[in-house]
Amino acid sequence: MTDTLSIPRPQAEGQFLVAALYHFVSFVRYADFRAPLQALCDAEGVKGTLLIAHEGINGTIAGTDAGIKAVLSYLRAQPEFAALEHKESRASAMPFLRMKVRLKKEIVTMGVEDIDPRRVVGTYVAPQDWNALISDPETIVIDTRNDYETAIGTFRGAVDPKTKSFRDFPDWVRNNPGLHNKPKIAMYCTGGIRCEKATAFMKEQGFDEVYHLKGGILKYLEEMPEENSLWDGACFVFDDRVSVTHGLAEGEHTLCHACRQPLTPEDLTSPHHEPGVACIHCHESRTEDDRQRYRQRQQQIEIARTRGIRHLGS
Description:
By secondary structure, the chain is an alpha/beta fold. The chain has 3 domains: about 15-105, Alpha-Beta Plaits, CATH 3.30.70.100; about 125-235, Oxidized Rhodanese, domain 1 (3-Layer(aba) Sandwich), CATH 3.40.250; about 260-305, no CATH class. Helix content is about 25%, strand content about 20%. It has 8 helices and 15 strands. The strands form 5 sheets. It has a 5-stranded mixed sheet with strand order 4-1-3-2-5, sandwiched between helices. Strand 12 (about 235) and strand 13 (about 245) form a beta hairpin. The protein is globular.
């Protein structure tokens, strides 16, 4: 049997390094940590969003290789984050407008009290072992992401909860007793963090064999050659790249700035598509007042573009 990890894989290209990270840990001093972390990121020209809370850190940042290395080194120099792991990809243009370090109650919010992945969590499955698990007829595969994410890509045979928010996931589980019909539950999300809490919740709901993809879809797309992959489509990412594909190459999707839904090249040909104003997904749900407001914003974006600057509403 061929070792899939030994097959050369396409590598994403781009001048900007993107680092996605999270780490659950008791972080009592998180409030005092915000200002120095923000200052370092600003000094290094790093942009993105980092959420810090009593339970740890979560976020995605982008910058030069040296800038990202400096921020990651600073984080790992803290005793709480010495074991911090991150995932890398590249972007052809800076995918964030600004740098935000935010204080939060939780680094990922599911809306269920006392869910702590440090206490109980599912079994991690490496990307090279994932195909076998989800191909097992005794396994139910669950996508824990939201509907606009699953719309552009998913693993073959996965159950799509069609949730609008991660807060909807617990009720979806409670209302689907059929999830107990098979012994194994395999779960996945973009980078792995939602599954930390989702698998913890499933374990506390009485599910015994609960597994999740280590490193999430991003790690799978990085390590799994396309010819051996069970992933179909692209993976939605929360930055200006909008989506990535195998090898973490940038996808073809753009974003509707009216409803924030990802758009395929085909969607852009729809008669309902008006850049910055409406798209095939939201044209029926927007009023004419909404559209006029969006047109005014789009005009400001275009004016900024002609001046060689980037409008914050773009």
